[in-house]
Specification:
five-stranded mixed β-sheet, 357 residues, single chain
């Protein structure tokens, strides 16, 4: 995802030391964990995927920290591990770390089950995903392959205990403040320390974060994500630096959010333009994203599903094969059609105003 994946050191306005640790979550797919040293706290934000490459990257990052800071830190010296959100490339390293540290682990309530009841949630999500792909118009054999890939990417992890949830501690751990930003993930949070914000995947400098329909998982979908972008802008106002889970630091959050909103509007317009003829989500995906294979195929099917769900919720689409859909004996592939010519101003909702005290 990131064009570069380099170790880097930062300092907050309050004098805390922040070390960016590049971790190879999957082959040629990099994420960032952050080690933060402030007062008596030694905090790791996110953990990588728990794959062999990811663990080796995390250990190498700690060696770099010790060389840079002239210290002798070990994982057992951590006081806290704070998870920004329940996606496998950000939390699955907990399986390894739980055996190497007694640090207190925190996550938002809406991602708690993902970490602590992983096997249950994987079973439920696999069933939901299969039903979604069927209504999206994906053929049976292809559905089976996509479900198998989905389950395989979760195989690095097994359930581990969590010590606290963020809302239960009033969204604050020492000097670290959190804010709930659903949309990309149900329990996604941003974490602020002094003038630095750790944004997880809510905003990235290089790409627009992945979207998935709320039909699959509550608190996901474009409506939640767009609201979260606006909330983050207001909450992080005055912050000097935004450190994300994959890409380069962001020093102009407002400009980056506007870029993301513009890209989403462009993609939604592309979806609308295909719907002068009734199409399924799978057919729309094939029109917009050509030649996608492997896990990327699943990702674009989810992404287009989020766009279609957004348009349907806003009354801009109709279902043309309602008789098939209404047949309770089967899951029919749903065909959507654009109701009318849609103005650009109708594609995304207007931003709301928020005041934080």
């Amino acid at each position: 995802m990131a064009a570069t994946h380099s170790f880097q050191r930062f300092e907050t306005s309050g004098g805390a030391h922040v070390f960016r640790l590049p971790v190879e979550a999957f082959p040629n797919f990099w994420a960032y964990a952050y080690l933060v040293l402030t007062d008596d706290l030694r905090v790791l934000i996110d953990t990588g995927s728990g794959s062999d490459q990811s663990i080796a990257s995390l250990e190498e990052g700690l060696r770099r920290v010790n060389a840079e800071a002239g210290s002798d830190l070990r994982f057992n010296d951590l006081t806290h591990i704070l998870i920004t959100h329940g996606h496998i490339d950000h939390f699955s390293g907990l399986v390894y770390l739980r055996d190497h540290t007694s640090a207190l682990v925190g996550v938002h309530e809406l991602d708690l089950q993902t970490l602590t009841r992983h096997e249950e949630r994987l079973a439920l999500m696999s069933r939901r995903l299969e039903a979604y792909l069927e209504t999206a118009g994906v053929p049976g054999e292809q559905r089976g392959q996509l479900i198998q890939m989905y389950r395989f990417t979760k195989a690095f992890y097994h359930s581990v205990p969590v010590d606290f949830t963020y809302e239960a501690v009033d969204m604050q751990v020492g000097p670290f403040e959190m804010i709930h930003l659903p949309g990309h993930c149900p329990g996604h949070v941003a974490i602020r320390l002094d003038d630095v914000v750790f944004s997880g995947d809510n905003v990235l400098s290089g790409i627009t974060p992945h979207q998935s329909p709320e039909e699959l998982t509550p608190y996901m979908g474009l409506r939640h994500y767009l609201e979260s972008l606006t909330i983050l802008q207001h909450w992080a106002k005055g912050s000097r630096l935004i450190l994300s889970g994959h890409d380069d630091p962001i020093d102009d959050l407002h400009a980056r959010v506007e870029d993301i909103r513009g890209h989403l509007a462009q993609r939604i317009r592309q979806v609308l333009d295909t719907l002068d003829t009734p199409r399924t989500i799978a057919e729309i995906t094939g029109q917009i994203y050509h030649g996608m294979a492997g896990y990327n195929e699943l990702l674009v099917l989810e992404k287009v599903g989020a766009y279609v769900e957004h348009l349907y919720q806003r009354g801009l689409l109709e279902i043309t094969n309602l008789d098939e859909v209404d047949d309770s004996g089967k899951f029919a592939a749903v065909r959507y059609h654009r109701i009318q010519k849609v103005l650009d101003s109708e594609i995304l909702p207007k931003e709301k105003s928020y005041v934080f005290v």
